[in-house]
Each structure stands twice: as structure tokens, then as C-alpha cells.
Amino acid sequence: MLRCISKILRDERGNALMIMGAALIPLTMLVGSAVDVSRAYMAKSKLQSACDAASLAARRVMRDDDLSDEVIATGTEYLAFNYPDGIYGSTALEPEFSHPEAGVVRIEASTTIPTVLMQIFGFASLPVVASCDASLNFVNTDVLLVLDVTGSMKDPVDGTPKIEALREAVLALYDELAPVQTQLQAQGLRLRYGIVPYSSTVNVGRLIYDVNPSYIRNSVAVPSRVANFSTNAGPVTYTSNTPTSDGGAWQSPSNKLNEADCTAYVNTSDVNGGGPEPTARTVTKYDGSSTASSYVKATNWTWLNSSGTTRTCRRWKTVTTTTYNTIQPRKVFTNWTYRQETYDTSSFKTPTGSIALANNANGSVPSAGGSFNAQRLAANGTGVSSTAVRWTGCIEEADTAPASLIDGGTSLTIPASAYDLNVNLIPDSNETRWRPQLPDVIYQRTAGTNSVNLDEGSTSRKDWIKVDRQRINGRDVDVDIPYSDGYWACPAESRRLSEWDREQMVTYTNSLQPVGGTYHDIGMIWGARMISTGGIFGDGCDFYNEMPCNRHIIFMTDGQQTAYCDKTLTAYGVEREDKRVTSTSSCTNQLARHQQRFRMVCNAAKSMNASVWVIGFATSLNSNLTGCASNIGQATTSTDSESLIARFRQIGNQIGALRLTR
């Protein structure tokens, strides 16, 4: 028996089959796990990609940092599209959305997939889980708003003035970016806003002065007028008319006064006093009434006292007093000459300064006479009333290139002599300095003339109109009121790049008032200047706290470019008279030149790596406006208030680059 067992143990035939049979069990487990784990890995990869896409889509539609139903619905839709139900045999997804910190959307999605071979060993399914965060990749961000506040912005759209819709849109942009601002501040970074309201000019004078007073001219030449004093002064006469009963001629019971006595009393001869020249002379004259020189019974006689026992005779007394100039000789006003005239603005441009301007050409000047503008007449005239005028802050541009160099062509190269288009301009001469606008002394003249003489009160004289100064929202605002001869308007003061709180933004947007005409070029010039890293402000940045800066210009308008030849004071003066933009009094090609200026400065802004967004509000965008945007997707039209507000929100949402953070 033992020998039999020993023989069997020593017999090795058939062992391979037994060994293979024993090895099949672990081998099956190994292959099965590899197959099922591979399927699980593919499902995991697919689910993670779907989660990433869903979180990015959800973050893009987020508004006001709110995890709204729209955000969740968008994320769910993208998740389902990229990881369909049943793929790999998966069970239904169970996504969870959360908002772990400002500006972040988090999605956690889980499912299970059935196993193929692992079921033999009791593993019926494998879990598949994905988690993802998406946020906007903000770094230091500067947003410069260039806002059209021209007169048409008071017109309604859907029953609401467009200016009100603009205010809401700016605040919507602010609210959209408020969480980002908080996040950046916590990281030692910043989000800043600058604002340039524009019409036919911009209000930047105080900002320039604060940087360097020498950047503003101390004198300006403008289309104006002078009062010519060449007539010798004569006596000045003052007349007063005084009716009186003269109480000395009256009737009593014992002394009857008859009508003949009254007639003699009324016709008393003149009484002279004083004189001769230069002593003042007085003449007293008695008449029957203010309109009759002799006795009129109904007026002079039958005056009774209260008791009816006496009569009183009444007469009209006129006293004329003539005085003479004590300084002889003097000159008085002869006529006006309308021409370019220079005014001293050295005190006018200061924050608390003003200049005195004569209200009229009354009074006299020293014996030499001559021609006096309103400023010199106020200083040298005798008997001349004057008014102290302060600067509103609106400017006229620096000198520009000859009209022939900017005549509506296609070149975007800015001529060296076009100082107005140099966004990095630092003035060092009168040609490169800005002019303070002085509308109170602006007068038009006949087209094509250098000067014209007109008498006071001439119906052909073209007086420049003045704006109405009104109290709006607790501040003085210049509101343009059109007259037949022209107008002038000054928009709200611009603001340099800075960090704002919401209350400051509300206060500022409420100050925006519709005034003036549409000069896109002047708006974009100062938008580029405000965001540039060079020039007089140098507020823009390439890096801040060792992190890069993104720069954006949002340009909003409700109309097309305009160009006024006359009747309007703009950033280029009265263009027909000043001839800085146009070389002729007919203003030929003037609009084309302003459009070319706009194209040139848009190109300059984009060359500074500023991203330009253009919004047309209730107006179409022509090729100049769409071409100003950094790309075609950044030039859009909003037809109503709701879409304008939505567009500002959308830009705020797109200013940062979406990125996955987990």
C-alpha cells in the first residue's frame, strides 16, 4: 500500500493540467479586473471632461455671483450632452452644484457602471466620480467707459430716457464685477474704473490742471468781438419826472382861488439852477400833465379837499439834471468789430479763479480810445458793468495737423503735427497745450470774413448763445438750449482710473446729463489717454504687484459722428472761424476728417493692447464703429434698455478669461 502511494507521488504525468486548472481562478480575476477597471477609467475620463465643460458653461452665464436656476440648468444641460445617460451602462448622473467662493462654480457628479467579469467575484458595479471648479481668470483689470451723453440721450426708448438706461447699465456692469473686485483686493490686486462722458467736447480741464497747470494755455484766441471807442464823450444827462400838487395854491373860505389863478399857477416859467459846465445844471419845469404842457381843466382844476370847502390846483413838475464828465476828454462806444481776439486765461484756468467780462459797451474809456474786448473793457472802462466768469472745465484740443493730412483717407498713421491725436502727449509749447473753453466771449461773424464791423443792435449781428445753468441733483449743470445762432455744451467731468465703491458709482452716474452733439473722435481720444501707460496721466499699467494688467475700453454711443461747421463751440473751437480742422470757411470734407480722426485714435488704443468694446444703443453701427472694436464679436447693437443692461453685464462676464481651477 505504501509502495503504491509512493509510486503515485513520484509520477509527474498530468501535473500541468492540474496546475493550469488551479491558476484559472486568479487569472480570470486579473483579466476581469483589468477590463472593468479600464471601462471605469474611460467613464471617469469622459465624465471629468463633461464636468469641466459644464462648469465653464455654468460660470459663463452666472450673473451677480448668484448660483441661480439658470446657472444650474445650463451646467446640467452641458453635463447631460457630454455624458449621456446610459453610456458605458452608467446609472443616471447625480450632479451637485455649489458656490464655494466668490466667482466660482463647483460641480460634483457621480454615477456607477456595471462590471462585466468582476460580477463573478461579487463586484456588480464600480463608482465613477468627477469634481470640477470654474472661475473667471481675473488679474489686475482696468475698465475705461467712454459714454455718449449727447442731447439725443434724453430721448425715450420703450418709454424710458436713454440716459436712465445708461445709468442702469453702468451699475449692472459694476455689480457683475463686484465679487471680482473683492477677490482681487484680497489678493493685493485691483479692479479700477475710469469714465469719459463726451459730446462735442470733454470736461477734463481740472484733471489736467491737477497734473500740471502749465499744460493749459495762459491765453486763447477765439472768434469774438471788440468794442470800438472813438467817439468823443458828451455830457451825461439824468432826468426825473415828479407830479405834485405843490400845496401852496389852495382855496380857503376867506381867500377864493378861481380858475384863472390855477391857469397862471400851472404855466409858471422854468426855474434854472446850477451850471455852467462842468457844474451840474438843474431845470425845473411845470406843465399841465405828463402829456400836456399847458393848463388842462380836468387834470389841474376842481380838486377838492375832503370837506368840499376848498379847491386845490394841481400841476406836473419835471426836474432835469445834467452832469458832465469830470475827466476830460473821454471816448464812448462807436461800433463792434467781430474778429479773432485773444483773452488772458492765466487766472481763469485756476480752480478758484475767474475773469471779469464787461456785460455791455456802456460808459467810456480814456481819451486815447481804441478797441476793447470784454476782458479789457471790464478793466479799463468807466461806468461799465461786468460779471466774474469761472471755467467749467471743458477744453479745446491742442493744435492739429493741416487739413490736407487728415482728409478722410485710409492711412491710420497719425501725423507728427497732429498733437490732438497723440494720446501720450506731454505739452511743452502753446501748440501742444490745451485751451480752456471760454464760451461767454464767443461770437460768430459772416462766413469767409476775417473781421466785420457792426453797430450796436444791428439785426445782422450773430451773438453766440449762452447755456442755461440749472441745478440738477444738487449740483450746477450746464444744459444746452438751442437757439437760432448755435449752442455750446459741457458734459459731466471725466474721472481717472481708480477703485470705486457702489455709492460713488451711483452718485457719479446720476450726474450724467444729455448735452451737445456727437463727436466720437474726442471721446475716444480721451478714453485712450485715460487708459494709456504714458502721457500726462500714465494711469494705465502693464504690471501691478508683479501681476499683469488687463485694459478694456467700453465705447457706447446712440448716434453717428457729427461735425459742425458753425453755430457750435466744440473741442476744435468754432470750426469755420478757428479753421483748425477745416482749412476753408465752407468746411469741405470736415465730417470725413473727424471720421478719420476716430479711426486713427481707435487704432492707437488697440496698439496699446487695450481691448475695445463698442456698443450701439438704439442705433446701427457703421464700419467706423465696428472697425474700432478689437474684433467683430466685441461690436454689438442694443435696441432697448433691457438689452443694453444685459450687454454691459455680458461684457463684465467676459472681461476675464474663463478657467478651470480644480
Task: Summarize the structure in words.
This protein has about 650 residues and is an alpha+beta fold. Among the domains are: about 20-135, no CATH class; about 140-200 and about 490-660, Rossmann fold, CATH 3.40.50; about 235-325, no CATH class. It has 14 helices and 32 strands. Strands 4, 7, 26, 27, 28, 30 and 31 form a 7-stranded mixed beta sheet that branches. Strands 8, 15, 17, 18 and 22 form a 5-stranded antiparallel beta sheet that branches. A hairpin with a 2-residue loop joins strand 27 and strand 28 (about 545-555). Helix 2 packs antiparallel against helix 3 (about 70-80), helix 4 runs antiparallel to helix 9 and helix 10 runs parallel beside helix 12 (about 590-605). The protein is elongated, with a radius of gyration of 43 Å. Mean pLDDT is about 80; it is low at about 245-255 and about 455-485.
Properties at a glance:
662 residues; alpha+beta; Rossmann fold; seven-stranded mixed beta sheet; 14 helices; 28% helix; elongated
What's the short story on this structure?
The chain is α+β, with helices and mostly antiparallel strands. It contains 14 helices and 32 strands.
